[in-house]
Amino acid sequence: MQHNPWERAKNQLHNAAEHISLDPLFLAKLGAPDRTVGVSVPMRMDDGSVRVFEGFRVQHNNLRGPYKGGLRYHPKVDMDEVRALAFWMTMKNAVVDVPFGGGKGGVAVDPKKLSASELERLTREFARKLAPVIGPSLDVPAPDVNTNGTIMHWIREEYARVSGADAQAVITGKAIKDGGSEGRTEATGLGGSYALAEYLRLTGQHPQGMTVAIQGFGNVGSYLAGYLQELGFTIVALSDSKGGIYIPGGIRDLKAVAACKERSGKIAGCYCVGSVCDVTNMEQLGGRDISPDEALTLPVDVVVPSALENAITSDNVADVKARIVLEMANGPTTIEADRVLAERGVVVIPDILANAGGVAVSYFEWYQNMHGETWTKPDVFAKLKEKMDAATGAVYQASLQHQVSLRDAAYITALQRLASSAA
Fold first, then answer.
1. What CA–CA distances, in Å, run from 87 to 6, 66, 174?
2. Spatial separation of the C-alpha atoms in residues 33 and 24, rounded to whole Å
3. Spatial distance between the Cα atoms of 393 and 208, rounded to a whole number of angstroms
4. 123 and 240, same domain (yes or no)
5. Are residues 419 and 297 in the same domain?
6. Mean pLDDT lowest for which of 40-44, 98-102, 240-244?
7. Quick count: other Cβ atoms within 10 Å of Cβ 385?
8. Are 124 and 98 in a shared domain?
C-alpha cells in the first residue's frame, strides 16, 4: 500500500491540516470525493470481436467552482489513482487560485494498441456514458496522459448529441480552431519554469549555471527544458520511457534532440552536433546513455520527474543528488521518499504548484469560451506568469509562517482558500 496514490493523498491532506485549525466536518468532506462514477465502455474492435473497458470519473470537490481535471487513457488507470488525481486537482486549483474544483477520469486501456477508428469508438462511447455528469458549469474534462485535442473534440460532439446543446466550454484542451486557447500546449512546462524561477528569486538564488536533469520528454518535459534553458539553466540530461542521454557539459540544441526523438521514437542516441544527431557524436560531446531511472539520480542541481507517479521512492531516494526536485508529474514522490528528502534538506517544489500552469490556462480557455473572448498568446503568458508567481509567493510565505515544507505549505494555502469558500 505504500505506493497507493489515494492513501498518499489523504496522508498529505492530514499532514497539512495539523498545522492549521479546520472544522472537522470540512476536513471530512475533503477526505472523500463528492461523487465517483464507474462506467463500462463496450465496443466492437476492428476484427469484429467485442471488448469491454472500464471507465472512471471522480468528482472530488466543487466548493470553488465546477469540477475540473483531465481524462487519461492508460492500462494502469484505476479508481484509487483517479481519486487521488481528482483530490490533487482540487488542491492545485485552489493553490493557483482559479475558480474550479477538482475532478479526474480515464479509461483503463493502452491506446497504442488501438487503431484510430477503435480509439474514436472508445472515446465516443465513454463520452456518452459521461455526458449526464459533465457540463460547462458542472464538470469540465481536459486532456491528460495519452489524450489530446482530437479526443476532446469527440467528447464535445457526443456531449452535444446527448444534451442537445453544443457547448464550447464543456471541455478544454481544444484545438485553437475549435475554441482552444493560445498557449495551452506550452502552459504546463512554462508554468513550471515560472514556479522554479520565482522560488529562486524569493530565496536569492540565480539560475545561471544550475544543472537540470529531466525524466520524461513529452509535451511537458520538452517545453520545460526549452524555457529553463532560456532562463539560463543548463539542461544536462533528458530521458523517456526507453532511455536517455546525459551530457555533463549541457545539451545545447534541444530542438534538434526533440526532432531526433520524433524521427526515431526515442531520445537514446540523440547526440546532436549541428544537424546530425547520432550515437557516434556521444564521445565528442562527452556524453553517455542513461536509463529513465538514472535521470533522477545524476549529480545535478535540479531534478525534474516529469513522467508518471511513483518516480522517487524508498528504493531510489538515497541516490537522489539534486538539491531541488521540481515535480512536473502528478504524485511522483512517495510518502516515504518525501520524508527522506525533507530530512536531507532537499527542496521539493510540489506537483500541485509546479505543474499548475496547465490548469491555469485551461481556466483561461474556459473563461474565454464562457465570455466570448479571444486572448493573444502574449496575454495568456502574462496572465499565467502572474498566477504562477502569486501562487509560488503564497506557498513560500506559508512555508516560512508555519515552518513547513513547500508541499505542506501548498496544501495549507489550498485548504485555507477552500475553507474560505465553505464559510
1. 9, 14, 24
2. 16
3. 21
4. no
5. yes
6. 240-244
7. 18
8. yes
User: Partners of 41 in the beta sheet?
Assistant: 53
What residue has cell string 516560512? Answer: 400
**pTM for the whole structure:** 0.93
User: Looking only at Cα atoms, what is the longest distance across the chain?
Assistant: 64
Secondary structure (H, E, C), 32-70: CCCEEEEEEEEEECCCCCEEEEEEEEEEEECCCCCEEEE
Domains contained in the chain, number: 2
Indicate the residue type of 197: A
Q: Are residues 96 and 169 in the same domain?
A: yes
- Both 173 and 187 in one domain: the answer is no
> Residues 356, 402: one domain?
yes
- At residue 2, the pLDDT reads 53
3-state secondary structure 325-350: EECCCCCCECHHHHHHHHHCCCEEEC
Q: How confident is the model at residue 4 (pLDDT cuts 50, 70, 90)?
A: confident
| Cα distances (angstroms) measured from residue 365 to each of 45, 102, 175 | 34, 17, 11
Q: Kindly report, residue by residue over 273-321, the tens digit of the pLDDT.
A: 988 998 999 999 999 999 999 999 999 999 999 987 889 999 999 999 9
Catalytic option among 68, 92, 104, 129: 104
Looking at the fold, whether 223 and 365 belong to one and the same domain comes out as: yes
| Burial 158-182, CB ≥16 within 10 A → b, else e | bbeeeeeeebbbbbbbbeeeebbbb
**Neighbour count for residue 375 (Cβ, 10 Å):** 18
Owning domain of residue 41: 33-178
Q: Are 205 and 370 in contact (CB under 8 A)?
A: no
And the C-alpha cell for 24?
472537522
Instruction: Using the 3D structure, point to which of 163, 178, 193 is the last residue of a domain.
Output: 178
- Specify whether the backbone of 292 is left (phi greater than 0), alpha (psi in -120 to 50) or beta: alpha
Single out the residue in 134, 154, 178 at which a domain terminates: 178
Q: How many CB atoms lie within 10 A of CB 2?
A: 12
Q: Tell me, what's the pLDDT at 331?
A: 85
For the question of residue 104 being annotated catalytic, the response is yes
Do residues 236 and 368 share a domain? yes
Radius of gyration of the chain (CA): 21
Q: Which grid cell is 26?
A: 470540512
* CATH number for position 253: 3.40.50.720
